[in-house]
Design brief:
alpha/beta, 8-stranded mixed β-sheet, single chain
Length: about 350
């Protein structure tokens, strides 16, 4: 596993962090290389909060952790750090705030998670061990975000069907429950050049949170697109897509789209939904929201969205459920995935139980 360091290390706190991360990573078998080398898996990008600069990864398999040190504790760490993560094109943000008694470190995720890593004086190694537990899932994950679009959707489905209407109505219901966070306007934060880089590498034009799907037949399912307003799912191929398979060799979701539409990518969680539908024919619908219900079983590791590892962890919890067709699974520091025979069944089971705030640990 190769890693590198980018940006400028200018303060004593940054040097201390870098020295500790070097020791920890190399002690776990990671090898340091200079920036720009092929096959880099993890990048530690030290940024200036006033002028954050991105590390321009060359491959999807490269994960970037931006590290910033602030001298004042903001009113909201999430609101202060999230734009820095986006501007620096990072997968994860490590935001450290100095104070007279030491410092606080927070991790901020693309899913808008924000949780602290405690530091106790004289326990440097323990601190870095806790940091590594946050970095390791990122460095060892495999993204499945590529889409292969096939303009073979039958004409009778170009305007959708009764299932896409159900998906659209369900998405509106989730909006009425105030469980769709607003899509994050990355195009308003990134420069045109950085936006082109993101589109070229990942093919995304925005960040939105949560998704839902419904089974079409034995192998296919309709699913919400990535980066769209979930409360207004209308156009087939752009707002709602038909997933027909997963190509394991190419690591790409296979989608049927109308030949006259320029398609959007399907939600990054399509691989998770595909695994569940494939294993459990009785599952007819899946909803993923960034909310919580007390007492539900949960994944143990905070893997990133769109990775095989997260999909497998959720699929394993669904498999363990007493009734996989009616499972409610927590995703650590993230949200919930809920299965049901149909979307109406899901809403009947969660109504009045949902906590909008996901507990962070």
């Amino acid at each position: 596993m190769l890693y590198t360091v980018a940006g400028e290390v200018t303060s004593d706190r940054q040097r201390w962090l870098l020295d500790g991360l070097h020791r920890l990573l190399q002690g776990r078998g990671y090898q340091y290389v200079e920036p720009g080398q092929p096959d880099i898996r993890l990048v530690l990008n030290f940024i200036d909060p006033e002028r954050p600069r991105p590390y321009r990864r060359m491959a999807q398999a490269t994960y970037v952790v931006s590290i910033a040190v602030a001298d004042q504790h903001p009113d909201s760490v999430l609101h202060a750090a999230y734009p820095l993560m986006v501007r620096s094109l990072a997968n994860l943000m490590m935001y450290t705030v100095d104070d007279p008694e030491g410092f606080h470190t927070y991790f901020v995720t693309l899913e808008q998670g924000c949780y602290p890593i405690p530091y106790r004086r004289g326990e440097d190694e323990g601190y870095f061990e806790r940091v590594f537990k946050r970095l390791e899932p990122l460095a060892t994950s495999n993204l499945i975000i590529n889409n292969d679009f096939h303009p073979d959707l039958p004409e009778e489905l170009w305007e959708g069907d009764e299932i896409t209407q159900q998906v659209s109505r369900a998405a509106k219901k989730i909006e009425e429950m105030n469980l769709w966070p607003a899509p994050f306007p990355i195009q308003e934060i990134l420069s045109p050049e950085d936006m082109r880089h993101v589109k070229r590498l990942y093919g995304i034009g925005g960040l939105s949170y949560g998704n839902l799907s419904a089974r079409k037949d034995r192998r296919r399912f309709w699913m919400s697109a990535s980066g769209v307003n979930k409360a207004n799912l209308r156009t087939v191929g752009q707002d709602i897509l038909l997933v027909k398979d997963f190509d394991q060799q190419q690591k790409a979701m296979q989608l049927s789209v109308p030949p006259h539409v320029t398609p959007r990518r399907v939600s990054v969680d399509a691989i998770e939904h595909w695994m569940i539908y494939t294993e459990h024919p009785q599952v007819g619908a899946i909803v993923h929201i960034h909310a919580w219900i007390d007492g539900i079983p949960s994944t143990e590791i905070n893997y990133p969205c769109g990775t095989v590892e997260l999909a497998r962890a959720v699929a394993e919890q669904v498999r363990r459920a007493k009734d996989p067709s009616r499972a409610i699974i927590g995703l650590k520091n993230h949200g919930m995935t809920i299965t049901g025979p149909d979307l109406d069944d899901i809403f009947e089971r969660i109504e009045g139980k949902v906590i909008p705030q996901v507990p962070m640990s």
